[in-house]
Inverse folding.
């Protein structure tokens, strides 16, 4: 009996040694350090050469005055939005302007008035009228602008509605200017845009319409076109048509 027990114990000892020798791995007490795995290969992207877009070159803002130059180099006025009807009352431009010094001729007193509510600077309008009337190509008088007192002529910048009222009984259709009751009534629409016969040259048309209407105040009547292609008399109704003539803004263009 004792012999059999000892035999079994010896067998167990031999088996246990076999287990420890590698058939079953012992379990360590601490953390297990796993071997590093190689990283998967990275796909290679083709090289792309990117050229950065250069910033736009700075451009100068357009000169608003340059937008109003004709091919002949004459400076043109800027167009305004002119209402059909404005304030209905005139304001006399304050101050005055003497005629050019060193010139002979009769002095004619006049004043300038602008209807309230029009988009034009009253003093600029008055200065332009004074320049035109005292040009050597104009009527040959010395015009003095005043703001009060007796005057021979009133130059009145007017809306179309005011023009129709001040020109009555003459019919202006809201588009023409006129001389009536001591006033050269200048239609603000025509002052702003000119007429087809003058093309883009609004500055020259302004000279014409001042000389024409003031010419009536000096006693001049309308004149016809002297012939196709010839220079139009300033008293031709050039706002309506040139009637075959060439445009002309001055009573004495060769002076």
């Amino acid at each position: 009996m004792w012999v059999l027990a000892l035999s079994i114990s010896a067998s167990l000892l031999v088996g246990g040694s076999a287990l420890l020798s590698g058939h079953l791995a012992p379990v360590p007490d601490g953390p297990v350090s796993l071997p590093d795995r190689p990283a998967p290969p990275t796909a290679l992207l083709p090289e792309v050469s990117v050229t950065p877009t250069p910033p736009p070159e700075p451009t100068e803002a357009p000169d608003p005055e340059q937008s109003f130059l004709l091919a002949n180099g004459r400076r043109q006025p800027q167009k305004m939005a002119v209402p059909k009807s404005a304030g209905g009352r005139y304001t006399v431009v304050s101050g005055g302007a003497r005629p050019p010094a060193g010139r002979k001729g009769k002095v004619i007193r006049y004043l300038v008035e602008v209807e309230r509510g029009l988009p034009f600077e009253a003093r600029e309008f008055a200065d332009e009228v004074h320049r035109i009337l005292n040009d050597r190509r104009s009527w040959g008088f010395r015009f003095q602008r005043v703001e009060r007192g007796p005057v021979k002529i009133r130059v009145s910048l007017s809306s179309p509605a005011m023009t129709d009222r001040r020109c009555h009984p003459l019919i202006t259709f809201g588009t023409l200017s006129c001389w009536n009751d001591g006033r050269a009534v200048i239609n603000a629409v025509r002052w702003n845009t000119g007429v087809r016969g003058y093309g883009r040259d609004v500055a020259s048309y302004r000279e014409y319409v001042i000389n024409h209407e003031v010419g009536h105040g000096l006693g001049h009547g309308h004149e016809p076109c002297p012939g196709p292609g010839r220079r139009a008399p300033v008293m031709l109704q050039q706002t309506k048509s040139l009637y075959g003539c060439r445009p002309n803004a001055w009573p004495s263009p060769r002076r």
